[in-house]
Methionine transporter (Acinetobacter qingfengensis), 278 residues
Amino acid sequence: MAQQQSKLKFVVIAGVIIAVIAALAYWNYQKKSGDSELVIGISPSFAKPLQVAADEAKKQGVNVKLVEFSDWNTPNITLSHGDIDANFFQHQPFLDNAKKENPDFKLKAFATGVASHVGLYSKKYTSLDALPQNAKVVIPNDPVNQGRALLLLQQAKLITLKDPNNHLSGLKDIAENPKQLQFVEVEGPQTARAIDDADLAFGYPHYLRLAKTADPNSALLLDDNTNTRYAILFVVREDYQDKNDKLKKFVEIYQNSPEVKQALDQDFGAKLWFPGWK
């Protein structure tokens, strides 16, 4: 009897070992064959539509892991180090500037995602004309998005730029500021939260909705720009190999899925975004 139990125990242990070896072999095969997880670094404001795309991709055999970053510096650093496969948070001008400031970044655009309008928002005033002298205005502190904010302030006729068409203008490039606006520079994602302490804030609809600080549709003025310069990109390393077309398949789902479109309508507001890939 004892001999039978010992034999049974041996068979069970042997079975477990075989199962573990098989599992490790299968995992290693997946990794080598490119069937492993596709890891994409994202900004939290883009999470919901991307998660919808990830859920659909899983049904098609593509496993996608979304990793959220709260700032606009870490996603490119992490991608450059090879810890993620791609990121999705920046437009081409931001990427160009990041590569200029960090020559070690060997990054490139893989595909284009959503583009959105931006606006000027206030919780204190209902019109731009009501802004007082020395009003406190929140704008992004990075060169690219600050330039975008200044162009919008120029569109609002609140300032005049030395070069009215320069999308990289900074505060030093303001030629006229009749209301003597006082500018408060914050990191781009924080503009949505800084609106509470300002007279006026440059804002992104998706960040405002995420922060729940203002209705994205309540802008005193929206930009009139519908080109795709500021469309958000799927960015990869220059040496990235898209094994089994995982990222390509994911992008196709993101761009064409009715469920993703519905999620974008809910997150941005149906009239506040447009497809950057068209």
About this structure: The domain at 37-116+229-275 is CATH 3.40.190.10 (D-Maltodextrin-Binding Protein; domain 2). DSSP finds nine helices and 14 strands in the chain.
